[in-house]
Predict the structure.
Amino acid sequence: MRFNRPTRRPVTESAVPMINVVFLLLIFFLMSARIAPPPPFDLTLPVSSNDATIEEAATLYISANGIAGFQGRQGDGAWIALSAIDRETHLTLRADAALPAPRMAAILARLAGMGFDSFDLAVRRP
């Protein structure tokens, strides 16, 4: 009597370890990435040879024509949002290099009138 041998199923690799590795990589990149909203408009920062690093807790963007951008708002909405934050919050100013000096002086006076007595100006290296 002859018995038929059972057909062997091909051994397949499990995809679970690969899924685990991909999931761990995803978690790693999400935890290590700095997720920040993009600037409200394109800026060309002024050039400086200063090597100091700045702490960016709150960032006020100023375009070349003087429009303010803060926390996703532009124009007067940005100034309203800026007036709502604590005055002890560290403020960073990212102003376009083409911003005229009188316009910059008016913005600095407005910031001083709002109670911001110190802030950092972001620059780029040459």
Observations:
- The longest strand covers residues 58-62.
- Strands lie at 58-62, 68-70, 73-74, 91-95, 120-121.
